[in-house]
Write a structure and sequence with these properties.
alpha+beta; Pnp Oxidase, Chain A; single chain; about 150 residues; seven-stranded antiparallel beta sheet
Length: about 150
């Protein structure tokens, strides 16, 4: 497990706020959701926009900036909510081992490189499997198991 973290720029902060506002209003950008997870110290709900990804029959959350606060909170809580408008999906999360990440990272880059590609340090959807294995420890990935909607 790597402690890689890329601090968001001002532009990232503005973009994330806009995506979160649209998603909360029920207008998610390209399938985005607002992740809600309990803070590991405060117990209060913390939210951030995320890009869920479906690979095969499973859904995932990938952390393109590395070990962010939402990653730490999700590890501690073991689950959370994905919100879009009034729709709330409760889920459990299981962290994916590094050895299983390459195909998920590749699929994530196919779907979301236009938004998050700069965080992947010169790696893209066409990078060799070996290179994806090398960077895998720096990109936390969680498999989501739905517990239903509220």
């Amino acid at each position: 497990m790597s402690d890689r973290f890329v601090r968001p720029t001002r532009l990232d902060t503005v973009f994330n706020a806009a995506v979160a506002a649209l998603t909360r209003a029920g207008l998610p950008l390209a399938g985005s959701r607002v992740l809600a997870v309990r803070g590991r110290s405060s117990g209060e709900w913390r939210t951030t926009p995320v890009n869920p990804l479906r690979v095969g029959g499973d859904r995932y959350l990938v952390a393109p900036r590395g070990t962010t606060q939402w990653v730490r909170n999700l590890r501690a809580a073991g689950g959370g909510q994905l919100r879009a408008g009034r729709s709330v999906e409760v889920f459990r999360a299981e962290e994916v081992p590094d050895a299983e990440k390459p195909p998920i990272l590749r699929a994530y880059l196919v779907a979301w490189a236009w938004e998050v590609g700069r965080f992947f340090e010169g790696v893209d959807k066409n990078s060799p499997e070996e290179r994806l294995r090398e960077i895998a420890p720096g990109f936390p990935v969680f498999r989501l198991r739905s517990e239903g909607r509220r």
